[in-house]
Amino acid sequence: MNTSAFVALALTRPSLVGALAPSSRRLARAMAEQVGDPDALIELGAGTGAVTAALRDAVPERPLLAVELQPDLAAGLKRRFPDVDVACAPAHEVLADHDAPDDTVLVSSLPFRSLPEPLRGITQRALIGFLESHPARRLVQYTYQPRAPFELPADTRLRWSLREVIWGNLPPAGVWVLGPG
User: Fold this and answer.
1) Which of 77, 92, 91, 96 is nearest to 22 (CA)?
2) What's the number of domains the chain is made of?
3) CB-side neighbour CA atoms (13 Å) of 181
């Protein structure tokens, strides 16, 4: 799917897309720099594949599952990245059903600030449960606001850490990592 199709989707379903343009290469590279050398990667909200491409460049030998809810975007990912597994499903369903290695990094472009309830709550709980199931797991997430992508429940051991602000993205974005505190 090209950028114009992404923009059309952003205009018709803004709460599920959360942006008017795909992630910039700078933002995609900054996110990929945070993954380290995990056993596997799961990308949530893969969209047009900007972050997918950066992940493939950073750790080409690692298994990558790209998760995208929008069928047109998922089909575009399958065509563009034949070596990547693509799931066209909600993130919480994939995380519940996927048998991931212990050292799996989640990389997310999900727009938590604009996702409608109850999808936002279900997805956040699934992410936290997935991360808490093994101490090596972490989430790399960006947000356009100068605060953590979403609030954490009081009883979690996970903590947000702001790693970088990408001023060259439209709009500027903060790259955050959620992991053991």
Assistant:
1) 77
2) 1
3) 11
pLDDT of residue 3: 54
pLDDT tens for each residue of 125-174:
999 999 999 999 999 999 998 999 999 999 999 999 999 999 989 899 99
Chain segment 39-50, per-residue pLDDT in tens = 999 999 999 999
Q: Which domain holds residue 84?
A: 3-180
3-state secondary structure the chain: CCHHHHHHHHHHCHHHHCCCCCCCHHHHHHHHHCCCCCCEEEEECCCCCHHHHHHHHHCCCCCEEEECCCHHHHHHHHHHCCCCEEECCCHHHHHHHCCCCCCEEEEECCCCCCCCCCHHHHHHHHHHHHHHCCCCCEEEEEECCCCCCCCCCCCCCEEEEEEEEECCCCCCEEEEEEEEC
Rounded mean pLDDT, 20-42: 91
pLDDT above 80 (res 83) = yes
CATH no. for residue 7?
Answer: 3.40.50.150
